[in-house]
Amino acid sequence: MFEALREAMIEEMTLDPTVCMIGEDVGDYGGSYKVSKGLSEMFGDLRVLDTPIAENSFTGMGIGAAMKGLRPVVEGMNMGFLLLAYNQISNNCGMLPY
Q1: To 10 degrees, the CA torsion angle through 17, 24, 88, 13?
Q2: Which domain holds residue 64?
Q3: What class of enzyme is it (predicted)?
């Protein structure tokens, strides 16, 4: 399954220059599940962006990037920490139309 996700990312990033990946260790390390392994060499550090361990922050970055026309894919390490980022999705992103 991880290889299928990696192939899909490569395909989309090749076809669309607005697709980017944001998350912890997605650059040189290749992500915690190796889905993004080699993507930073293929597409550069601006499209495969390593972030600190701050799920709330980089989820907000992804929402802001989408608002400006990019198509970000946000990768988090584990579900326990991603629950912290749910505020960005449910409250901040959900309230944008209002």
Answers
A1: 10
A2: 1-78
A3: oxidoreductase
Mean pLDDT calculated for residue range 53-66: 93
The whole-model pTM stands at 0.87
Say whether pLDDT at 82 is over 90.
no
Residues whose CB is less than 8 angstroms from the CB of residue 23 and which lie 6 or more positions away in sequence, other chains included: 31, 36, 49, 50, 51, 58, 74, 75, 76, 77
Q: How far is 85 from 98, CA to CA, in rounded Å?
A: 20
For residue 27, tell me if it sits in a domain: yes
Contacts of 42 (CB under 8 A, 6+ apart): 10, 13
Question: Mean pLDDT over residues 51-76, rounded?
Answer: 93
